[in-house]
Known about the structure:
The chain is α+β, with helices and mostly antiparallel strands.
Amino acid sequence: MTDDELIAAARGAAEHSYSPYSQFAVGAALRFADGSVVTGTNIENASYGLALCAETVAVSKAMADGVRGGLEAIAVTGPGTAPITPCGRCRQVLNELAQLGGTDPEILCVGPDSVRRVRLSQLLPDAFGPASLV
């Protein structure tokens, strides 16, 4: 799957967003070394703190399906005029999955007219993860 297809998958996921409070529909798509792609969208809750980010939903789906390694790239899309990046919580959740496979995935932070490419380690330097517990 190409980066453009990964971005399209993230945009498609955003179409299923449940974001009645913020109206900020986010989509995420995770690409793995075996070619599989897992998507997620944000799911808000009337109790705002219980909302789920798109990246967290995608990671949860991957983990529930037994995917534990080979995370190569993540595309994150949302509304607005600038590319968006994963929030701090999502960076940590993505890091956990990445460390299980020993990868440093590229994050495609997608805006309407541009894509910012950055490695997860750049967004979350000196990350705490499974290797920190050894």
